[in-house]
Amino acid sequence: xxxxxxxxxxxxxxxxxxxxxxxxxxxxxxxxxxxxxxxxxxxxxxxxxxxxxxxxxxxxxxxxxxxxxxxxxxxxxxxxxxxxxxxxxxxxxxxxxxxxxxxxxxxxxxxxxxxxxxxxxxxxxxxxxxxxxxxxxxxxxxxxxxxxxxxxxxxxxxxxxxxxxxxxxxxxxxxxxxxxxxxxxxxxxxxxxxxxxxxxxxxxxxxxxxxxxxxxxxxxxxxxxxxxxxxxxxxxxxxxxxxxxxxxxxxxxxxxxxxxxxx
Length: 263
Known about the structure:
- This protein is α/β, with parallel strands linked by helices.
- It has two domains: 37 residues; 218 residues, Rossmann fold (3-Layer(aba) Sandwich), CATH 3.40.50.
- It has ten helices and seven strands.
- The N terminus and C terminus are likely disordered.
């Protein structure tokens, strides 16, 4: 009964606050009914990834083929078990990601986490740990937060209680150049040996299943390298979830991280 009274009190206070300060769309700023959401018009502008998509890397397919796998994965199977992304990294979706990464719009993290969890609940089955793709400490100081870590913190609240987020398993001691304007081959070379797992945490990963979280997947070089390191530490399964997926054309990355793109 006490909890019911608290809930009623909370809802009353929320209504009063919303009356004076109406919730606004996180993208366009229009008034909406619920905080930390997008308006209907902005939702429509996001290109969500639905079937058919590659069963291994999650890349959108033009038509569903017999093996349900993209050409790249048929030629070379990914290191990770499987990957999934929620929307395509372009237009409104790209603007949201860039604001999340570069414009301190950290209030997008709960919204993104709910989208990831609701669209890919099957990825949270039989998982032991959530692990975020880490930033080098110099980039973390400059940006002040790791967007992948924020997603993990929010996802941990939505996931089954048996899944724990560990921000310490992966480290990035090598300062790499920005992946922004590199093609797939140079991305792989750039990220090689960039990640390590501290010795004191390696035993905790043996025989465990990991769900690796990042904001954007482009060529897949970063999550491949992270997955390789996790498997070498003894993980039995590494799956990948990202908020967005960049589409590549002629092996060139079209997902440029220009800060002016989020305005």
